[in-house]
Every structure is written in C-alpha cells, then in structure tokens.
Amino acid sequence: MATGRTHRPATRSRGIPEATVARLPLYLRALTALSERSVPTVSSEELATAAGVNSAKLRKDFSYLGSYGTRGVGYDVEYLVYQISRELGLTQDWPVVIVGIGNLGAALANYGGFASRGFRVAALIDADPAMAGKPVAGLPVRHTDELESIITDNDVSIGVIATPAGAAQQVCDRLVAAGVTSILNFAPTVLSVPEGVDVRKVDLSIELQILAFHEQRKAGEETTSAQEPAAAVQPRSGAAVRTPAAGRAAGKGPDGDVPAVMPA
Amino acid sequence: MATGRTHRPATRSRGIPEATVARLPLYLRALTALSERSVPTVSSEELATAAGVNSAKLRKDFSYLGSYGTRGVGYDVEYLVYQISRELGLTQDWPVVIVGIGNLGAALANYGGFASRGFRVAALIDADPAMAGKPVAGLPVRHTDELESIITDNDVSIGVIATPAGAAQQVCDRLVAAGVTSILNFAPTVLSVPEGVDVRKVDLSIELQILAFHEQRKAGEETTSAQEPAAAVQPRSGAAVRTPAAGRAAGKGPDGDVPAVMPA
DNA sequence: CCATCTTTGTGCACGCGTTCACAAAGGCAT
DNA sequence: ATGCCTTTGTGAACGCGTGCACAAAGATGG
What we know:
Chain A has helices spanning about 20-35, 45-50, 55-65, 75-90, 105-110, 110-115, 145-155, 165-180, 205-225, 245, and strands at about 40, 70, 75, 95-100, 120-125, 135, 140-145, 160, 180-185, 200. The first copy, chain A, is of the alpha/beta class.
C-alpha cells in the first residue's frame, strides 16, 4: 500500500472523511468490474466482499455521498459508478506530468492504469539531455528546462516525481512554483511543500520494512514464546554488539554492493 | 503513498502500534542521513522536522521501543539507527522474489532501495517463456514453473507481485502455498489470503484518484463558495437527474466517453 | 554541591474511524 | 391492500491515534 497523505491533518473535506475518500477508488474498481459483467445491482454485502472491506463500513461510506441505494434491493451499479466517479473528479480530464524517466518513470509512463480514468500523461520530463526527444510509451521525453512551460501550457495540476531522492525536493519546488498543487512522490524523501499543496508518497522500501517487521514478529512467536519482558528491547549479544559509536563504520560493510543511489 | 495494510485490524504487535511501525522506516531514513553526515546526537525536535512529523508524536513513538534518549541532550544517532533497524528486523537478511517482470517488475528489480537494507532479490519470476533466462538487473529471469522450488530453496518469506491484475490472485495463492507469508502487491486487485499472511498494496491509480478528489475540491472552492448545503451531492442538471431506478440505463449518458478498459 | 536550563517521557483529553445493531423503507407475493 | 422479507441508512459505543502540556531527569556552569 502506498502510504501517504502529507499535510491536511485528516481534513474532512466537504463532509467526506479522508478514510472514506481513500476507499472510494476501491469501490469504483469493484463496481466497474461488475458493470463489465453487466450486473445491474449489487448489495452492500456483495460489493463489500469484492472490495475487501466490511459491509457496514461500505454503507457508511456511501452514506456520506448521499442515499443512492434502494432498501431491500441494493445499489444500482451504473448509477453508483457514475456518482463515485463524479465525486472523485474523474469525469474530467487530468493532465499529469511524470518527472524522472528512469526505470520507474518509464514503467509508470507505460502503465495502463494512468490513462484509464480521466488521467492523461501530458508529458515526460527528464534532466538527462541524452534522453531528450527519445520516445517512451509513445511520448518524446522533454528536458527539464521546459518543465515550467509544459506545466503552464497544459494546465497541469498533478505531478508525479520519479527522480532520485536527491533531486526530488528541487523538482517539487519547481513543479509547485509552476502551478502544480498535487504531487505523487515516488522518491524516498520527505517533501516539504507550501500550504494548499497535497503530497502523497509511494515508498517501496517503507512497505518492505513494515512487512519485515511483521515477518520478524511471526518468526519470533514461533520459536521464542515470550522473549523479553518489558524494558526488554535493550540488551544484546556480547562481542558483536555495535555500540552507538562503533556502528558508524558500517554502510559499506555487510552489504558493500549497495548502489550509492537511493538510500532506502 | 502506498495505501494498504490488509488483514490484521491494527493489531498492536507486541505493544507497538501499527501507526508507529509505519513511521519507524521514516525515522530510520532520517537518522541514516544524519549518520552519514557524522552527526552524533539529535533532538526529538530536529529529527521530527527531518522526518516530517510532530515532535511529540516522535517521542511517543520512541517510547514504545524503550527509553533511548538522554534528557537535556537528545538521542544518540548511531544507537537509534541500530535499535530501529533491529526492531524492524533489518539486521537480518530477507530474501525476496519479484513475480511479473514487465516494465514495473524490471523497474523494481533495478531499484537500489531493495538491496540497501536487509532485502535481497532472490529471484525474478515471469510467466512468459520468452523471458526465461534473460538477464534483468543482473539476474536471469526464471519461469513461473520454478516458483515453488525457488521459494523453498531460498527460504523466501516475502513476495512482490508485479503482474497484471488478472494473474495476481493466482500468483498470490501459489506464493502462499509455497510458504510466503508477506506480500507486497502492485497489481490493482484485492488479494484474498489466509489468516496469518500480511498483504500490503501499492496502487498508483488509487493514489491518483485521491489526489484528483482533493484537486477537484480545491478548484471548486475557488469558483463556487458554498456550492450545495448538506444533502447536497444529489441533484444535477434537470432532465438528466437519474433516480436510482432510472439510473440503470445511464452510464453512457452525460459522460458517455468513459473508457471501459482497465477499470481503474 | 547547588541552581538552572534543556529535552525527554508520558498522563490526559479529544477527535476520527470502525463496528454493532436496529429501525425505517421499499419490494413482492398473496 | 396487507404482511413478510430483504437490505439500506444511521445512532451510539468503543478504541486507536494525535497533540498538549508538564513533571522528571540529566547536563552544565558556577
């Protein structure tokens, strides 16, 4: 899962809770699938299962949008698809720029999900002059110098950052200065943006680390029953114990092959 | 941000709240950066700023791990790096397999962040026979037939799914059957897994849709001040007002251009 | 050794999000 | 029309997460 949401401390935008907004795309996807199978109506129970949530939660979520169901019957699939699409702002066209056309940026550009619902890749931008002009996913890569004019000319308000961590903040600043007010950040950095700009981040290594935590916990539960009491965490094996001071030397140690790029 | 977290209704694993676990990688990254600049100690205030959170929250988060700070001074950077790494299970090696070596899968394989901290790409797996043997990011792509043996032989417990949506559940089932207990899913589908298996999902289009929602709201606030009162959302252009029952026929109405491809 | 200053660790209160459980509402059969 | 059955919409309770604000703890200087 992308983690995310910076700024806007869970603002209940126009009555719709942030948590609900985050689930609407999920419902929409499930509904679209039903629509393709020409299913006319669906109950909260069925839809909830398809979306992987609790039916009570789903009904409450929908209640924030209005009363779109029919008691005793369920929800009209097509109607709901439209309502949610409209609520999410997907009935209009959103031009998007992707900055940083490396492996990830190229993958994003090729990703079908982009174009599918209201999003249109307006331009691919990269700082490498050698990339300029080369076609990626059918679009010619533009040089960073053109960033501002591209944003302005295409009226872009959503930007995707797929650059190395080091360049992210700078790119972000330029995007914002040029008029972008929503940013999806794939670079492993905390971006600071002015009030009114939304940032969401997708961070692979954070997700993996969270999984590792749970994985470790599972493994620990099998072997050791109740490892350490309370203040537990502190002590450790004798010799190899890296004291705060000693630790520093690492970084090129155990995993000396770590590409210096992209911290983690 | 990757969204996510399936199953495990916010279990407070060993006393550490899920929300805190999700922030530990953030702190770790900030601390690693400080460590590289040889900064010996850091205050909760400074570190919080670097990680983009509130200092009180940070202190509370750390309090779940133990009392690792020194009042009047702050936290020892190296020591904290080690403690958090250990808590997240990053002091051990986690072999990972990536299934689905398309654009995204290849990008992930090349992503440095993988190897950097305890994670090692054990194998790249793809269903396309033509891909088999071809080197990607220095590793030969293996065919799906080998999936089970690869998992078993390398003792893999974390799997990354980067296949098309249609194949995701099937791949997931096989991974789980072979012994994987943590899955990072990039495919736009809800995966169902047995108890005890953790799934986190990273979904580009969901993130974009959430941004679009806020973007639309911003745009709406500028022009219209207080659009509609409360029960608001419902009404719309006269004739086209679709009642729940009438709705069915719609879907091709006002916005008849909605592409039926790739749900969202 | 004492006073002062800094920064941690946490008790407490508040608000969001989730879930339960049920009354209201509509369809359908008789 | 009437009654039964299904499913929605929501009031209310609960629990997690956040942030305030302060007491405790340690460092530092005289």
